[in-house]
Every structure is written in C-alpha cells, then in structure tokens.
Task: inverse folding
C-alpha cells in the first residue's frame, strides 16, 4: 500500500514566504506614500475650505455691517482665538468663538488674516503630515510645504 503525500515540502513553503516578503517590501512603501499623499491632499482641501470661509466672512461684511475687520484668527493646539477691531466699540477685541464657518477640523497651529480690503493670507500647520499651507494676500492658490512648524507663520503686523 502506497501513502499519498498531499502536503508541501519545507523548501516549497520557504520559497512562498520569500516571494511574499519580496512583494511586501515592494508594495508597503508605495502604499505608505499613497496614504501620506492623501493626507496632504486632505489638508490642502481643508486649507482651501478655510480660505473660502474667510472670503465669505468678508463678503458678508458688504451685506451687513456687523462683520469686524481686520480679523486675525490664530490656532494653537487646534483651539481658535480671534483678534478683531470691533465696529461697535472701536477697540480691539479677542474672542474664542468660531467665527469662520467651514467644515473640517481646525489646523494644529497657524494664523489666518482678513484685512480691511478682504485680502486673505494664511499660514496653517498640520502635525500629522508635517506640512504648512500658506497663502499670500494677493494669491488665489494655496501652497503646501514640508517645513518646521516654527517656520509656518504670518506676522500680526502684516494683518493690521
């Protein structure tokens, strides 16, 4: 009577494991890069939404006179603080309520400025992607750069 061998030999199993390891070393970095790029694109989309919200805030000032400009929105650990010139009191005021209406999460750190003429400038930072989204007052586009958070800023002087 002859026994059937239905299993794999040790050499065959090692060959399959080696092939899977080679495939993993090729695909894992690609998948990680795709995930990193998608996070950067999501951050850029969020920055564009914030910029549009700032433009909408200024546009509402032409309809109602209740909007206070210039406005400096500062983010620190995702918490928002606003500094603006109050039309009612003719003094500088600070608020921690959310003034800009947008969906998405707050940036980790950074500033957004809306000047009296409606020009929006920003420098906001995302820790997850180590990227900074910047926009100058006259620019229509947002630039994404991988820089350190202390280099991602606009000055208060440029806003007021």
Result:
């Amino acid at each position: 009577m002859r026994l059937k061998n239905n299993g794999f030999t040790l050499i065959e199993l090692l060959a399959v494991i080696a092939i899977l390891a080679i495939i993993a070393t090729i695909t894992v970095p690609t998948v990680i890069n795709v995930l990193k790029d998608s996070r950067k694109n999501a951050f850029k989309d969020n920055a564009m939404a914030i910029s549009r919200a700032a433009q909408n805030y200024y546009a509402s000032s032409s309809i109602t006179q209740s909007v206070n400009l210039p406005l400096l929105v500062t983010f620190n650990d995702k918490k928002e603080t606003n500094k603006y010139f109050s039309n009612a009191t003719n003094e500088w005021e600070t608020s921690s309520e959310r003034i800009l209406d947008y969906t998405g999460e707050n940036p980790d750190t950074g500033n957004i400025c809306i000047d009296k003429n409606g020009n929006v400038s920003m420098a906001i930072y995302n820790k997850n992607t180590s990227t900074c989204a910047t926009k100058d007052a006259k620019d229509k586009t947002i630039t994404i750069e991988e820089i350190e958070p202390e280099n991602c800023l606009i000055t208060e002087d440029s806003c007021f």
Notes: The beta strands are 71-76, 79-85, 92-95, 109-114, 120-126, 131-135, 143-145. The chain has a mean pLDDT of 88. Residues 10-63 form the longest helix (54 residues). The chain has two helices and seven strands.
